[in-house]
Design goal:
Blueprint (H helix, E strand, L loop, with lengths): L1 H15 L21 E7 L4 E10 L9 E10 L5 E9 L3 E9 L3 E9 L2 E2 L6 E13 L1 H14 L14 H8 L3 E14 L4 E15 L1 E17 L2 E17 L11 E15 L1
Antiparallel strand pairs: 1-2, 1-13, 2-3, 3-4, 4-5, 5-6, 6-8, 7-8, 8-9, 9-10, 10-11, 11-12, 12-13
Length: 275
């Protein structure tokens, strides 16, 4: 089940956390309400390359009586061919609501959430706590194919080896289903040290209450530097990320562990141009 653990943990980790989003004149680049159009690229220590594009609009409604921001962001991972799209709307009167869709080889995730922008008493540090609901649609057939391919690549012929011959129904039986309903909370924070340097931190925790029994914790620390290229703002950042994911109550043979867990730490470097 080690390969199931890897597929599940990487898919959920990439989908359920909020990365530094996309500028109104008085909104920091790493503020989720930033509507500047942007393009970016990043890579992690495993060589995965992520392409990012997006932007938005200020005050699409309300006649200027209150501030609103509407933002769209798309991401594409060139090696895994995973894709993600986020749509958010912030309203000065009540906060922000967003939709986050993520499509991976192992599963598709659909998240809706509510975020409340807050400013610390120092007038500088900003907090963006959110509560979220996610529907997770697990593709057990693709997981089974991945297990069989892994067995073959490890030198086993079809029909032998630990995972050869696995079917989607067998994976579904082991996991206890092929979908899950997850509730989660997330705290996204931003602290600008100066006009050019800033820190982003994030803590995420979620647990399913229906379907496959999933638990997840995700921690992120990002250090960014802002500079200018022509008339645009150019961000360079270094990000560290730790993810823990566990699937409980597996249907396995007596005496085997009835859970699988994955822990992953990775470092990414990225560039982001706002125009």
């Amino acid at each position: 089940m080690k390969n199931v653990k890897t597929l599940l943990s990487l898919a959920i980790a990439s989908a359920l956390t909020l990365s530094a989003p996309v500028m109104a004149d008085d909104v920091h680049d790493a503020d989720p309400r930033n509507t500047a159009w942007r393009g970016g690229i990043a890579t992690d220590n495993s060589g995965e390359i992520k392409l990012v594009a997006g932007g938005g609009f200020n005050n699409l409604y309300g006649g200027g009586e209150y501030a609103t921001q509407t933002i769209m962001i798309g991401e594409y991972f060139t090696q895994s061919e995973d894709a993600r799209f986020r749509l958010a709307n912030f309203d000065q009167r009540f906060g922000g609501v967003y939709l986050d869709t993520n499509f991976t080889e192992a599963m598709d995730l659909y998240t809706v959430g509510y975020m409340l922008p807050l400013t610390a008493t120092n007038g500088i540090t900003q907090f963006f706590p959110s509560v979220n609901y996610s529907y997770i649609d697990i593709d057990t057939n693709k997981i089974a194919n991945g297990l069989n391919e892994a067995s073959f690549m490890n030198g086993y012929s079809t029909g032998s080896g630990q995972f050869a011959g696995m079917t989607g129904d067998m994976v579904k039986q082991a996991l206890g289903g092929d979908d899950a309903h997850m509730a989660s909370v997330n705290l996204y924070g931003l602290h600008p040290w100066s006009d050019t340097h800033y820190t982003v931190f994030q803590a995420f925790g979620g647990s399913s209450y229906g379907g496959v029994d999933l638990q997840m914790v995700d921690l992120v620390l990002l250090q960014g530097v802002r500079t200018t290229v022509g008339e645009g703002v150019f961000n360079i950042y270094l990000e560290g990320k730790y993810t823990h994911m566990q699937v409980n109550d597996l249907n396995v043979a007596e005496g085997d562990k009835n859970y699988i867990r994955g822990d992953e730490a990775k470092v990414s470097v990225g560039f982001d141009w706002r125009f």
